């Protein structure tokens, strides 16, 4: 199902996004499964209460039994009775660099996932489909690693101060100039932690008397930052421009709720790629709306920087727009650059203001020098300034891998959410037992995947999320696809009712990108 | 070979049942409890069906026959 949006010529390329509806039978059976597990959860809670069974989860102390109960809400019930049963698919300890292949420590549980013991064996060469390693810079050898080692021997590992006090190294200044040049903005500032970038800087930009319009499926860091700021928050439906326009019109016509005064500022919070859905924001329309209603735009490019666009400069380049139209461009270095930290880019006055007023600049430790060097080397590599075409090849390889993987999965008959071009591929599982079964079966076949359930997703829409990488070769993808096919047949995951016509086996060239089917 | 593929198919069906009702995730004693309950309910329902359905069907059949039979006689007499 391809939706080609013609919106007054705002889009220069087709925007193919699809979220197939849950089949009715699958939804009913999912509820049946959750119902059975809930009944058994009540039975186990009863047995734990009456001391028939040993209680291994957290309970209140004897003195606290008469106070407000701490562990009686649904989240704790879910954790005790459903999450514990499938807990072995998460928090798996890895013991090598998280590149295209990873080593994992084997662990077993003898009391149904309440405790784990290590067998001592290390499973080597697991194909890694879960790490945010979009351009393949998570390496322990090569130019980035050598430069980082040199910086480590020159500066050490710790900075021992905040940015405003003694933690402002010349490396940080170099990094910020480079980031500003990479994004095409006037100035940029880098912070030590991506989550803290969002949650500590939004309160510095908006306050009481301002309005925040945030997407339904925004990340926890954006939600936390919005709540901490004290501004009024209104939510629009995911990627739905009619909903956003209605909210903007209402805000401008009616003003603040009680006093009817105009809002001081209206800030729209969106993300470049939404990591649970794999969808890309409709940026041309958002920018058109922002200009029409004179509001500000905060774009969180955590997953899309380096992963989208012909030269890896993110979702703004992907749509061919002007970076100066986005007021605050935020991103992280964790995903495509193989490092840690976040940045904010924008006009010089804005960044100078943030240098003084941001909580993160005043109180948080600045980036560690080897990490800064890794970011500088990888960014220069992507821009092509180190003299090789390695960066450009990585970006192209990621785009090819994305298209190939998504098309093959759709042909096999799985339900895949999201945009055709996003390297985040969510595969729908729906039933709770299949979450645990999928994780375990894929590990048996030496492929590491991330499965997600409630509360990160709605309760029936649990999924397995694949993150593609430029480091994956076609052979690795083919192996992974073969195993996914096998597991899909074993667990009956091929729910899709729309079948794509499989293409002839042709070499991957430019013409294959343009084909669409109706 | 046919028996083997039949057994594999039945085992695959049993796995699907386990996945859908989440008995794949249960501990052995929970599975025992769940299956005992299910099999008991199934046996009771099938026994009830075996005893009562033929009686119900024959009663219903007689009722409809009586209804239609009277109608047929009435129309025949008018034509005469």
UniProtKB/TrEMBL annotation, chain A:
UniProt xrefs under Gene3D superfamilies: Aspartate Aminotransferase, domain 1, Type I PLP-dependent aspartate aminotransferase-like (Major domain)
Cofactors: pyridoxal 5'-phosphate
Which PROSITE patterns does the annotation name? AA_TRANSFER_CLASS_2
- Give one Pfam hit by family name: Aminotran_1_2
Q: Name one GO cellular component term.
A: endoplasmic reticulum membrane
Localization (cell): Endoplasmic reticulum membrane
Q: What is its main location?
A: endoplasmic reticulum
Q: How does it sit in the membrane?
A: Single-pass membrane protein
Q: Has keyword Acyltransferase?
A: yes
What gene is this protein translated from?
Sptlc2
Say which family it is in. Belongs to the class-II pyridoxal-phosphate-dependent aminotransferase family.
TM stretches of this protein: 24-43
Q: Which residue ranges does the record assign to the Aminotransferase class I/classII large domain? A: 125-484
Please cite one Gene Ontology biological process associated with this protein. ceramide biosynthetic process
The protein's matches in InterPro entries, at most eight in alphabetical order, are given as: Aminotrans_II_pyridoxalP_BS (IPR001917), Aminotransferase_I/II_large (IPR004839), AON_synthase_class-II (IPR050087), PyrdxlP-dep_Trfase (IPR015424), PyrdxlP-dep_Trfase_major (IPR015421), PyrdxlP-dep_Trfase_small (IPR015422)
This protein's record includes keyword Transmembrane: yes
Which GO MF term does the entry hold, naming one? serine C-palmitoyltransferase activity
EC code: 2.3.1.50
Question: What is the designated name of this protein?
Answer: serine C-palmitoyltransferase
Instruction: Give the main EC class.
Output: transferase
**Keywords, ordered alphabetically:** Acyltransferase, Endoplasmic reticulum, Lipid metabolism, Membrane, Pyridoxal phosphate, Sphingolipid metabolism, Transferase, Transmembrane, Transmembrane helix
**What pathway is it annotated to?**
Sphingolipid metabolism; Lipid metabolism; sphingolipid metabolism
Q: Which organism is it from?
A: Anseranas semipalmata (Magpie goose)
UniProtKB/TrEMBL annotation, chain B:
Give the record's pathway.
Answer: Sphingolipid metabolism; Lipid metabolism; sphingolipid metabolism
What GO annotations for molecular function exist for this entry?
serine C-palmitoyltransferase activity
- According to its record, what are the GO cellular component terms? endoplasmic reticulum membrane; serine palmitoyltransferase complex
Q: Which residues cross the membrane?
A: 32-53
- Its membrane topology: Multi-pass membrane protein
Cellular compartment(s): Endoplasmic reticulum membrane
- Which InterPro entries has this protein been placed in? Ser_palmitoyltrfase_ssu-like
Keyword Lipoprotein among record annotations: no
GO biological processes: ceramide biosynthetic process; endoplasmic reticulum organization
One Pfam family, please name it.
SPT_ssu-like
Q: Which UniProt keywords apply?
A: Endoplasmic reticulum, Lipid metabolism, Membrane, Sphingolipid metabolism, Transferase, Transmembrane, Transmembrane helix
Specify the domain of life of the species encoding this protein.
Eukaryota
Q: What does this gene product do? A: Component of the serine palmitoyltransferase multisubunit enzyme (SPT) that catalyzes the initial and rate-limiting step in sphingolipid biosynthesis by condensing L-serine and activated acyl-CoA (most commonly palmitoyl-CoA) to form long-chain bases. The SPT complex is composed of SPTLC1, SPTLC2 or SPTLC3 and SPTSSA or SPTSSB. Within this complex, the heterodimer consisting of SPTLC1 and SPTLC2/SPTLC3 forms the catalytic core. Within the SPT complex, SPTSSB stimulates the catalytic activity and plays a role in substrate specificity.
Q: What family classification does the UniProt entry report for this protein?
A: Belongs to the SPTSS family. SPTSSB subfamily.
- PANTHER family hit by this protein: SERINE PALMITOYLTRANSFERASE SMALL SUBUNIT B
| Subunit description | Component of the serine palmitoyltransferase (SPT) complex, which is composed of SPTLC1, SPTLC2 or SPTLC3 and SPTSSA or SPTSSB. The heterodimer consisting of SPTLC1 and SPTLC2/SPTLC3 forms the catalytic core of the enzyme, while SPTSSA or SPTSSB subunits determine substrate specificity. SPT also interacts with ORMDL proteins, especially ORMDL3, which negatively regulate SPT activity in the presence of ceramides.
Name recorded for this polypeptide: Serine palmitoyltransferase small subunit B
